[in-house]
Amino acid sequence: MIKNAICTQAEYCPTTHWDERPEQTTISLLVVHNISLPPNEFGGDYIQYFFTGCLDPKLHPYFASIYQMRVSAHCLIKRDGQIVQFVPFDKRAWHAGVSSFQGVNRCNDFSIGIELEGADDVAYTQTQYQSLSTLTQELIQDYPAITLGRIVGHNDIAPGRKTDPGIAFDWPQYRQMI
Ligand SMILES: [Zn+2]
Q: What processes in GO biological process is this protein linked to (predicted)?
């Protein structure tokens, strides 16, 4: 259930990595991503630290290259299906970067970004599909401009630059579960 732009079944983890959407914006796109920190390693709280600006650069060489990035997503779905929310859905999270959907640039303005803890070529867990599809249903209910044709991967809006959620993401299964 979504109440005041927050998913009630999520753990809320506030960040300063967000700002206001442009006035009169209709939220009309859902973007599915993946992330794992360090890359291809699952578990731990490093993604939460990253999205809140608290990642310790000394813990891993890769962290040293990214810890100053100010990025976020609305939600993260961990391997066990737990949802962590960082940014209320009516605010602008910083997940898409340089992007375009059907000729409209800056997808962060009008989209919701959901990160799956994962990697492009590693199967996602069934509980992740369950959490993602339930959350998607709730989002469609609250933001009806997010139609089925407006649920995309990061790779779809930043082709050549981004590959997530990757070959391992089962779009037919996800679409069937929505
Ligand atoms: Zn992404």
A: cell wall organization; peptidoglycan catabolic process; peptidoglycan turnover
